[in-house]
Design a protein that fits this description.
single chain, about 375 residues, alpha+beta, Beta-lactamase, 7-stranded antiparallel beta sheet, two-stranded antiparallel sheet, 14 helices, 13 strands
Length: about 375
Amino acid sequence: MAHKTIKNCLYSSIIITLLLIYQPVQAQYSFPKVDDWLSDNVKDLGGRAVILIYKDGRMIYEQAENELNAKQKFVTRRIAKKTGRSASEMLKDFNGDTKLLIASCSKWLSAALVMTFVDEGKLKLSDSIGQFLPVMSATGKGNIALLQCLSHTTGIKPEPKENKALSSEVATMDEAMRNIAAHQMEALPGEGFHYSSIGLQIAAAVIEKISGKDFETLFHERIAVPCGMTNTDFGHKHVPLAAGGGQGTANDYIRFLQMILAKGLYNGKRVLQASSVELMQQNYTAGKKIISTPAEADNWGYGLGEWMLEESPGEKVANAVTSPGLFGSFPWVDNKRQYVGILFCFNLKNKGRAEKYTTLKKLVDEQLDK
């Protein structure tokens, strides 16, 4: 009996040893140059910033820096007073769960929401907006295609203070559409690129019409909940600004990026079809007249709700894509190296942003390539 027990113990030891030897080994990452970059640049990023990097099913980098100077604290207090928010709350140190306005980072979220309707066959990218919005047909804009709305190639000329006219100063989405319908055309649909809020607001109105639900509810049901984005919304306004009214956290946004990297899957659940993710990551501005583009875009091409950060020669789908926002946040997906990252901050200075973005990504890439 004792001999049998020893024999069983020996077998068990051998099996355990073999399992330990052959178990998958996760790579260990270190990003000292990213640490240095964040420390060196935090003041220029508004005094506070968070960087998250996700790869191989786990977060491989999480770092926050908080160095608000006296002027930045003063400005923050003034913003708090103007917006009726708590100054002490706004002055808290940043981390991955800090909620911020994300400006044009919203475009990626909104375009993905629209693409869920394409997946269901309720919309086609070739559909003309006049099918759903008669006011556009009445002013000669009904032939604009949904794809042109998502790629800023509608040809409609934005007006000064456009965002207020599309969201803050209107009571309904129909009123916002009447405002857009009254705009002049500056190019034929599909021929000129003008980065603005117009196209995505039209797309938001379209999905409201065909679903019978408001934009905020649709975002919550179709993107936020399936991606585990528990602290992201569009301000709960009567008329959310689809192209720039989002607010959320770095931890939330990186979950959305994980879904994009996995070609539409999040935690095994299908949020977008892989074909839709790929359609979003193709350049639709090549050969078009560039009427207006932000300085920080650095001559990038544009897809559907996102920029082509690094195009792939000979391939339709870009190597890396992004959708940075006015307030400095910079999310990206690297299809080539299979990882995602986000720089989360609040900074109104846009001078030198493109260089900062590309430098940060280059430092991450170099470490991953080793």
